[in-house]
Every structure is written in structure tokens, then in C-alpha cells.
Amino acid sequence: MRLALLQPYSHPGDSERQFATLAARARDLAGHADLLVVPELFMTGYRLSAEKLQSLAEPIDGPFARQAEALARETGLAILYGFPERDGAAVYNSVQAFAGDGRRLVHYRKLHLPSDDERAAFATGDVLVTFSFGGFTVAPLICYDVEFPESVRACVQAGADLVIAPTALRRHWSQIAQMMIPVRALESGVFVAYANWAGSEADWDYAGLSCICGPDGQVLARAGADLQVISATLDKAEVPKARARLTYLRDARFRLEGPF
Amino acid sequence: MRLALLQPYSHPGDSERQFATLAARARDLAGHADLLVVPELFMTGYRLSAEKLQSLAEPIDGPFARQAEALARETGLAILYGFPERDGAAVYNSVQAFAGDGRRLVHYRKLHLPSDDERAAFATGDVLVTFSFGGFTVAPLICYDVEFPESVRACVQAGADLVIAPTALRRHWSQIAQMMIPVRALESGVFVAYANWAGSEADWDYAGLSCICGPDGQVLARAGADLQVISATLDKAEVPKARARLTYLRDARFRLEGPF
């Protein structure tokens, strides 16, 4: 599978400009990638007030979703993106993906909300999900979720070969992108893709450092701090090879319960 | 607490020479450290046949233990070391520690055996343990044990502020010492000390790279590849500070059961 991550600048609150960035890159990549991933809350930008995020939130089949679906059909590229999701009175920090034929591949709501800001804006999800794509079983996580080794283990126990985590990671947490993400891949024998923002947004500097890691913990592609597309071709045969070399999943003497 | 790790060369099968290395370094450190840690199976060396390890194994109060206890009394230094432990018909890959007053601080048997070689030589332990030392709650793990995020989480849930892992890590697994150990500290908000062998032993090249990591994932001390003592003064106040900054332990939506 040819996986591409877009590490974009943010135009907070300007979904139209965000979509234009996505559309231009998706058209560039058409025929050269199978799946394009963009960051957490890509639709709106991340660093907005709870009120603003809630007012911009859309249902899973809202106007931005219809644009993304049309873009996937046009380019033949599957597209996975983050957005504030409205569901009745509740708003979630969600991702969803559309296939090149317009089918919805997955919809996931963030399980772990890291800050008072996020807890003011969003309700929490309750389930992990997986979807089939390009011969892989893929599990989406969002930002803080992937910092818990338990989340990745649970995805892998549910069959995942590839974990995809859109994120919004600040520069002073760079050690998470640099060290923790490759270790998540290594310790659970799974590909991990981590798609962050570039540049800065309001009072926040982003770390950039988006990456794609192999199931042996090797970094297959790594972004700098600025706007960038990174990509890698993932070979599913690497997964059983990594798990035969380091048999953590077989040897662990602990069992995981949850999510609760 | 002033913690020192000795990263020694191995003299496989020559416990007397191993003890002489330990004694010389303990005498150097007397008055300058509180706890000295040496690698996995320090007493005998690691890279021996199952038969050899079993024939050299000693009970927890065997001759090497009595020497280590006397050395702790002489130097006033607590000493934690790995050894093949005989208990009736069974042999374990164990660590134990003696305090400066000769008291046994802890005795622990490796939970996760990583290879056919180790499984041929040793029975597995079944429990995690902690001990109090210098105001810290300390949990020993051994080598492969610490590669499981679950092990460190479980130690922390049992109250540990400091995890100490004697190890025997080969050079081609350097990413474990370089990346995984700091991440274990960061993700569970706990000091982690990792004491490896230097140089080579029979057909094995060791990674060296022993380290002491703070609960914020920062490397406080890091060895090279050769014989070396590294040390750091650990401030227990760093632990609640790290756990307030990154609230993983509070926010995880998974529960751990085990060890089984």
C-alpha cells in the first residue's frame, strides 16, 4: 500500500482554505498513492475555542464530508481526515475516511481527551474500530490515544497491521514524535503513521515530525517542521516478519481490558 | 537517592573474577552512591549453556550471596545483582539486593523469558515485587521484562517510583536501549535504570548503552559500549511532577490484568 501523509499549515476556522490545500495535494498524488492522511481536526484547524469548534462541527455526512467524498472519487485516492463531528447535542473529535469509490471506510471518535480545552469542547468516544484497505487491517487513533501503549496493543489484538494517528503535537512534546511513535510500532509489531500539523497556529508551535514507522520500529519516512508530504510503500509481509523476530504479542504475561 | 550502574565486561563462568570487578567498583563508590546495580546474570556471565548455568546456579543465600552481603556491609552501599538461582530442582533467572546493613532488600525472578536458550535454562517467575529504598518504592525487572509496557505500568500501579532492569542486550537491539527505555519512563512517569553488559561475550556483542532515565523521559546518564560506571542523583519529587504534566496514569481507558 502506498501511504501518504500531508503535514499542512493551519488556517483556523477557514474550512474552505483547508479543503483547498487538501484538494491540491490529493490531485498531485492521484495515481501515486492509495491513501492520503491529514491531521487531527483538519477541517477546522485545532487551536480554536470550544464554542468555535462546536459551532463549526458537522455531522459525518455534512458539507465537508461530501466535498471529501467527491475529492476521493475524483482522484481515486482514499482520504482520511480529522473533523469536529456533531451528533445531536454532542460534539466529538473524530476522523473518517472515504475510499476512491466514495464508500465510507471508517468513522472513529477520539477515546482519550488530553486537556481541559478538549474536554470542554468534546464528548469522548467509547470504541476502537478497524477497517480493511489495500490488504491491510487499519485502525485509526487520534493524537493522545496513540501515546498509550494499551491503545496500540488493543488495535493489534483486534487485528490491525497499520495504526493511523492524525495528531496536533506541539513542539515542546517532540520526544513523542521522535521516540514514542517508533516504539509504539516496535513493541506491537505494527506499522504506525503519525500525521501532524506544520508551522504554528495562534499561540501554538507545532512539532511537525510526521512519520511512518515500520513494524520493526524503523522510521520509513519523517517530515521536518514545515508543510510537507511524506510517503512510504508498506509491505504487509513485514508485519509477521517483525512479530516472529520480536514475539512480544505471544510472550506478554498481561491481559488488557477495555476501553472503559 | 544516588544511583550507580556498573556496565562490566563478562568473564563467563568465572564468578570469582566477576565478584572482584564488583568489589573494586563498590569500594570506589563507597560514600558516593547509595545503590549499585549490575547486569543480568552478573554472577556467572550471561552467554553460557543451559547446563552450565544450571550447574553454577546458587540458592538465594549461597556463597556469592554471602560475599555480596558482606561487600554491602563493608561499603555501606546497597548492591543489586543478577544471578542464576537454584531452588530445589528449579533454576530461575533472578536478581536480589542487599542493603548496607546486610538486610535482603528484594528477590525477583524474571517473568518473561525471551529465547529458546533461556527457556531451556530457566523456569519463569510469577510475580512482580517492590521494595522500599532511600524514600523510593523500587521495582526490579529483568531485561526482556522491561520491553513490555505492561510490566512497567504494573510496577507503577503497585506503587513504583523507580524501575531497575539489569539486562543483557546485544548490539543489534540498540534501539531498545536508545529509544524504548526512555519511552518506558515517559509513558508511565517513572525513573527507569537499565544496566547492561559491556564488550562481548563468546559470540555476542553487547550494546552497552546502560542508562538512567527520568520520569519525563529525559536521559540523565548514558553509557557508551565499554566498561563504565554511570550515576545520577534521583529526586523523588520529579515523579509527581511528571505525572501531573502528562496524566497518562489517570487518563488510560484500559485496565491491565496479570501477570498470568
CATH architecture of chain A: 4-Layer Sandwich
Structural class of chain A: alpha/beta
Question: Kindly state the mean pLDDT of chain A as a whole number?
Answer: 97
Biggest beta sheet summary of chain A: 6 strands, mixed
Q: What string, H for helix and E for strand, traces the elements of chain A in order?
A: EHEHHEEEHEEHEHEEEEEEHHE
**In what order do the strands lie side by side in the largest sheet of chain A?**
5-4-3-2-1-14
Helical coverage of chain A, percent range: 25-40%
Count of domain modules of chain A = 1
Oligomerization state of this entry?
A: homodimer
Quick one: how many beta strands of chain A? 15
Distance between the termini of chain A: 33 Å
CATH domain topology of chain A: Nitrilase/N-carbamoyl-D-aminoacid amidohydrolase
Helical run tally of chain A: 8
Shape, principal axes of CA atoms of chain A: globular
Largest interface: A-B, 32 and 32 residues
Question: What ranges of chain A have pLDDT less than 50 throughout 5 or more consecutive residues?
Answer: none
CATH superfamily of chain A: Carbon-nitrogen hydrolase
Q: Specify Rg of chain A, calculated over alpha carbons.
A: 17 Å
Q: What top-tier CATH class of chain A fits best? A: Alpha Beta
Strand portion of chain A: 25-35%
Give descriptors for this structure:
260 residues, 6-stranded mixed β-sheet, alpha/beta, homodimer
